[in-house]
Design brief:
Keywords: Membrane, Transmembrane, Transmembrane helix. By secondary structure, the protein is an all-alpha fold. 77% of the residues lie in helices and 0% in strands. The chain has one domain. It is globular.
């Protein structure tokens, strides 16, 4: 997806919007930590760290992920501040997988085909959801918490994680395909390295 690289390398508008969104995520993570929701504060901090990696490594503040990807990652963090949305955690995990995918494609020599992008985001989201489930089970056994209440709820959580991972992967491919064709550089595959 060479279009990803062209969208993020020297685009001042993208950089300005991305830094504004990163600042908003920092505020949301701090407010979430103030509410003593350390998990959500950690998720917000993870998004900020992922957004800071390219500009720090490249020593260029304009080398940031696309602002749209950061916005998708920010929405569940902000939603969590004002109420509970049962699926917000899975949205955040899928957004983090999407952010990692966008950064790998834009800032490394690795090129991914559209099908691989979708599969990668889905599998990454499912893997994190699986680890999260194991963590909840350990907490329930060791600390007598009650995170896992029913098997039915657990299965639906995993289904939601898979669905949001697939949605995030498809959005990634559709978004960058749209930018690719709008720029007049239509490629038969988004993963073409030419």
């Amino acid at each position: 997806m060479p279009i990803v690289r062209s969208l993020v390398e020297n685009d001042r508008v993208n950089a300005a919007l991305a830094w504004l969104i990163v600042s908003a995520i920092v505020v949301a993570a701090a407010a979430t930590a103030w509410q003593e929701s350390l998990l959500w504060a950690s998720l917000g901090a993870s998004i900020v760290v992922l957004a800071l990696v390219p500009p720090i490594v490249r020593r260029d503040p304009s080398s940031v992920p696309p602002w749209e990807v950061l916005l998708i990652a920010a929405v569940p963090i902000w939603v969590r501040l004002y109420g509970t949305l049962p699926i917000a955690g899975f949205l955040t995990v899928a957004a983090i997988a999407l952010l990692v995918t966008a950064e790998i494609d834009a800032f490394t020599p690795i090129r991914m085909s559209p099908r691989f992008v979708v599969a990668f985001v889905v599998l990454a989201t499912m893997a994190v959801a699986g680890l999260w489930t194991i963590g909840q089970w350990v907490s329930d056994v060791v600390f007598a918490t009650s995170f896992l209440t029913t098997k039915n709820e657990l299965m639906w959580d995993l289904v939601y994680a898979t669905a949001f991972g697939g949605l995030a992967g498809v959005l990634f491919v559709v978004y960058f395909y749209r930018h690719d064709t709008a720029g007049g550089e239509h490629h038969s595959q988004l993963g073409d390295s030419s």
